[in-house]
C-alpha cells in the first residue's frame, strides 16, 4: 500500500499537534507518535506503549534500540522502555514479563504541559479487574507514570510491574552504576541472595540482579559519553540491573552479538515479595524520571 495511503489510515493522526506531535507508520507498519518538546524528541509506539527513543537536543540518545528488534504484533520491542505487567519473569507457558508489552495500547490524550514539555497518555485495553494507564512526559527529562487501578468491586488485585529501560551507553566496560551499594540483592545468575556489596557496580559478565528496597537515585556513570543517566523512581520497591553480555547476546535473535557493549538495563518496579496488592477501587502509581547530566 502506498505510503501516503498508509499515513492517511494511521489511527493516531487525530492526536497530531503541528510542530509538536506527528503520527507516523513505524517499523513493522506499527503506528507511532513522534513527539518534540522544547528540549528533546521521542518516539512512542502504540505496541506495548513502548517509548523506543528519547534524545535531548544536542545529546546522545538516552535509550538503546536493537537494530535486530522485531516489530510485530506478537513480540516485545527489544529496546526503549518495555512495560512489564502484570507479572515479572516467566509464568509457565504464559508470555515472559506479562502481556502489556505485546498489546497495542490506546492513545487517550496528548497535551502540551509547562516548560515546553508534551504529555502522552495511553491506556491498556481493559482485561480483568484492572484499569492501567501510562503517562509519558517528553521534556528536559523523560518521565513515565504507570498507574494501575483495581476496578473490581469485591476482589483484591495483586500484580508485579516494572519499567524496563534499555539505556544507551558508550562502552559497558567503562560504565559505573552507583546508588545500590548499600542494598542486598538476588543474583538471578546463581539464584542466591547477597548482602550489600558496599561497592558500585561494574559490568564484566552477564549480570542479572534484583535489588531490594533502596532510597535515592541510581546513577549510571558513562565515561565514554561523558555523562550520567539518573534514574529517579517513586512507587518502586525493586531495582533490576541487567546486561546479557556475550553468550546470551549470541542466542537472542532480536539482539546483535555486540549490542551488550552499548546498553544496560536499570529497571524500577515491584517484583516478587514486593508485588503490589490493591483493595477494590484503590490504585498505585509507579513513576520514573530519567535525567542526563554532564559527568
Ligand atoms: O532484565 C531482567 C530480565 O528479567 C532478564 O532476566 C532478561 O530476561 C530481561 O529481563 C529481558 O527479558 P526478555 O523477556 O525481554 O528477553
Describe the structure.
The protein has 295 residues and is mainly β. Helix content is 5%, strand content 44%. A 9-stranded antiparallel β-sheet has the order 6-7-8-9-23-19-18-13-16, with no helix packed on it. The chain starts with a helix and ends with a strand. 6-O-phosphono-beta-D-tagatofuranose is lined by residues 76, 89, 96-97, 188, 208, 240, 242, 265, 267.
Keywords:
295 residues; binds 6-O-phosphono-beta-D-tagatofuranose; globular; 5% helix; 9-stranded antiparallel sheet; mainly beta
Which structural class fits the helix and strand makeup?
mainly beta
- Identify the strand order in the major beta sheet: 6-7-8-9-23-19-18-13-16
Number of strands: 23
Order of helices and strands: HEEEEEEEEEEEEEEEEEEEEHEEE
| Rg calculated over all Cα atoms | 19 Å
Shape estimate:
globular
Distance between the termini: 47 Å
Mean pLDDT across the residues is 96
Q: Cofactors and ligands present?
A: 6-O-phosphono-beta-D-tagatofuranose
Percentage of helical residues?
Answer: under 10%
Largest sheet: 9 strands, antiparallel
Any low-confidence stretches, pLDDT <50, length ≥5?
none
Share in β-strands: 35-45%
Number of helices: 2
